[in-house]
Design goal:
By secondary structure, the protein is of the alpha+beta class. The protein has eight helices and 21 strands. It folds into three domains: 134 residues, Immunoglobulin-like; 169 residues, Rossmann fold; 38 residues, no CATH class. The N and C termini lie far apart (81 Å).
């Protein structure tokens, strides 16, 4: 009737919801603060549960259909020495259907990372298509952070425990006192200052006087663990697997020592330079050693003399020396270790050293990954 082109009217009717949807989506993301929390001390292959919390600081406006997307990207390739194929980033996301004004909501995402190393998390991205789903608006929130995945832990077999006990029994033993830890072997009369938990109540009732239990103090031996990750210039899948087996076995030994406690532990590895972790067996040392093993890379050069020299200079007489390598090693090769100064105590430590070859099938008798 007014000579108006019906196509222009239709275009205006379609453009209205698009413009309104884009404005509403952008306005709906204002005032949102997002936080991420991931657990520490996760090993390769373990289930990782990430928690995302979104706080709506708008006092009167609620938010609907907000998607939070995270990014998990590995920094380098530890097992391939940086020469393997680049792994694509993983982008987990969670949906928040409704976030009331002035309140917060939490959601979680789960996943597994099969390889050790350092990963970059974030930055987090908030997006929404509310209300019409015609326009998507997104904003970047939060900072990136580095997340370390520890080596995969396996299980030490009874044969490894028996072999270590035999090696310990044939050398000088050190005794230390750590509370009442040890085997019960007798009783004695109670003395002032004895803890009440040491009282042996059955004997006390039978004798009529208080008696306390006696414990054999545990005899602990310090351990030095040298990890040599050698691989040829053109490694294949078998060489890559040997490197991961050696790292996983060393991490399992460290974890077992730190759980038992009562000894000093030394870990020596090589990357661009020789790296050393040393201290009493504890959760703190385990965390430091695991971070060191998580990022260690294989080397094509022969770094074993340098590693042994660094270990022998830091250990005391009687320390158990364990060498974990990706190839057969003969410690009696005087020509190979000519540059390492060997006094009588160091020669004795090398003679008693135990060599674990990750490329040999005998490793399965000491260590299991199942």
């Amino acid at each position: 009737m007014r000579e108006v082109n019906l196509l222009l009217v239709l275009a205006g009717m379609l453009a209205g919801p698009v413009v309104l949807g884009g404005w509403a989506a952008r306005r709906g993301l204002r005032g949102l603060v997002v936080q991420r929390r991931v657990p520490e001390g996760v090993c390769a292959g373990d289930l990782i549960v990430g928690q995302v919390r979104v706080q709506n600081h708008q006092p009167r406006r609620a938010c609907w259909a907000v998607v939070v997307e995270d990014t998990v990207e590995r920094i380098g390739n530890a097992h391939t020495n940086g020469r393997g194929p680049r792994i694509r980033p993983i982008r987990p996301n969670v949906l928040f259907p409704y976030i009331p004004a002035g309140q917060s909501r939490r959601a979680t995402y789960q996943g597994r990372l099969p390889d050790r190393g350092q990963y970059r998390l974030g930055p987090l991205r908030l997006s929404t298509q509310f209300p019409f789903g015609l326009m998507c608006r997104s904003v970047v929130a939060g900072q990136s952070e580095v997340f370390t995945v520890y080596p995969r832990l396996g299980r030490l077999t009874q044969r490894w425990m028996a072999r270590r006990h035999e090696a310990f029994s044939g050398t000088h033993r050190r005794e230390r006192r750590h509370g009442s830890a040890g085997d019960f072997y007798g009783v004695r009369p109670w003395q002032a200052g004895d803890p009440l938990r040491w009282i042996h109540w059955r004997t006390t009732a039978r004798r009529g006087t208080p008696v306390v239990r006696l414990f054999e103090q545990p005899r602990n031996r310090d351990v030095a663990l040298v990890v040599e990750l050698w691989q040829p210039d053109s490694p294949g899948p078998a060489e890559y697997e040997n490197v991961e087996l050696a790292v996983s076995f060393a991490a399992t030994v460290i974890a077992d020592l730190c759980r038992r406690g009562g000894s000093d532990v030394l870990l020596v590895t090589a990357a661009d330079r020789v790296q050393v972790a040393r201290g009493p067996a504890s959760a703190s040392l385990m965390h430091t050693a695991m971070e060191q093993l998580a990022v260690v890379t294989a080397q094509t050069a022969d770094r074993l003399p340098e590693l042994l020299d660094a270990a022998l200079r830091r250990i005391a007489p009687g320390t158990e020396l364990v060498l974990v390598s990706t190839r057969p090693v003969c410690l009696a090769d005087t020509g190979r270790f000519a540059g390492v100064p060997l006094d009588p105590s160091r020669r004795a430590a090398l003679r008693r050293a135990r060599v674990v070859d990750a490329s040999h099938e005998d490793l399965q008798t000491y260590y299991r990954t199942d």
